């Protein structure tokens, strides 16, 4: 007998449902890859190949609650928000777990306003973004400087050419 209970639809793409962890466990292959993150179920089959951390780590988490593995890597807020399109339903309430640091696309935005990140890995991720912006700005400044220098050189050549 199926353990799936259909609930009123809130998505046009697929009817969200309640799943037991046992039901999720059946979808643990690269061709049919489901995972639980923070009591929500995601079908990440089509995402796996694009995962910046590689496919293998995702295949290892197929069909199981991957929240802790996800948290251990201290994924960025961008990574959390990427989950949204793959949401297919909720874990049945009686199987809900408590997470020390719940992050999901629905609550993420609100929580990010009040909870400062203390994870060193996340701090490093944010620092990388700041460094990238700095390098971009430096590149623009250098290019402008180079353009001015070239123009000055060109003008000085003209003077040299026409002076008696
Ligand atoms: C399916 C949902 C997942 C999404 C949307 C996702 C997304 C991402 C993104 C965007 C990154 C780049 C770094 C960042 O922005 O945080 C990343 C890196 C990574 N992810 Fe995931 N990830 C997922 C699940 C997992 C899981 C379950 C693991 C299990 C261990 C994992 C392991 C890693 C690793 C090892 C990296 C590389 C970190 C690095 O080299 O800095 N990811 N992931």
TrEMBL record:
Gene3D superfamilies xref list: Cytochrome b5-like heme/steroid binding domain
CC per GO annotation: membrane
Superkingdom classification of source: Eukaryota
Pfam families: Cyt-b5
Record flagged with keyword Zinc: no
InterPro entries in the record: Cyt_B5-like_heme/steroid-bd, Cyt_B5-like_heme/steroid_sf, Cytochrome_b5
Keywords, ordered alphabetically: Heme, Iron, Membrane, Metal-binding, Transmembrane, Transmembrane helix
Transmembrane domains' residue ranges: 133-155
PROSITE patterns: CYTOCHROME_B5_2
GO MF entries: heme binding; metal ion binding
Compartment(s): Membrane
Annotated ranges, domain Cytochrome b5 heme-binding: 16-92
Family the UniProt entry places it in: Belongs to the cytochrome b5 family.
Name used for this protein in its record: Outer mitochondrial membrane isoform
């Amino acid at each position: 007998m199926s353990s799936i209970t259909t609930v009123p639809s809130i998505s046009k793409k697929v009817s969200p449902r309640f799943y037991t962890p046992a039901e999720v466990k059946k979808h643990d292959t690269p061709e049919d890859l489901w995972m639980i993150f923070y009591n929500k179920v995601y079908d990440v089959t089509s995402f796996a190949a694009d995962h910046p951390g590689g496919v293998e780590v995702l295949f290892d988490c197929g069909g199981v609650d991957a929240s802790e593995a996800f948290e251990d890597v201290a994924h960025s807020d961008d990574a959390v928000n990427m989950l949204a399109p793959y949401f297919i339903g909720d874990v049945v309430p009686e199987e809900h777990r408590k997470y020390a640091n719940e992050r999901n696309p629905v609550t993420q935005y609100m929580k990010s306003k009040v909870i400062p990140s203390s994870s060193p890995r996340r701090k490093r991720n944010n620092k990388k973004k700041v460094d990238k912006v700095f390098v971009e700005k430096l590149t623009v400044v250098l290019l402008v400087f180079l353009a001015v220098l070239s123009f000055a050189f060109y003008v000085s050549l003209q003077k040299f050419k026409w002076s008696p």
